[in-house]
Design brief:
By secondary structure, the chain is an all-alpha fold. It has one domain (2-99). Helix content is 88%, strand content 0%. The protein has helices at 2-17, 22-39, 46-99. The mean pLDDT is 82.
Amino acid sequence: MIATFVFAACFYGMAEYEHMTGWKWAAASVAITFVVLQTAGLMLAVLPAQVGLFAVLWWQNSKRLDRQPEEQAARVEAMRLERQERFRLAQEAADRKRSG
């Protein structure tokens, strides 16, 4: 049981160093350690499972970081279109007020 929390603490530290959500890593580490110890019963089997967990979460984070500039550009474009539409509506309202 102590090994579960040791792995969780290590993964929390690694996640914070990588500027990721440390709690997600720690919770996943606890879950992996618990499941492996319950199924295999060997502490030696936990290490490959933890390495696999690290690889999967690191890969997911790198994919998220790769998508970030595209998502930001899409948000900026959506905000620009929204401002343009508000300006057009305000201009139409002002024109109606002047002519009406």
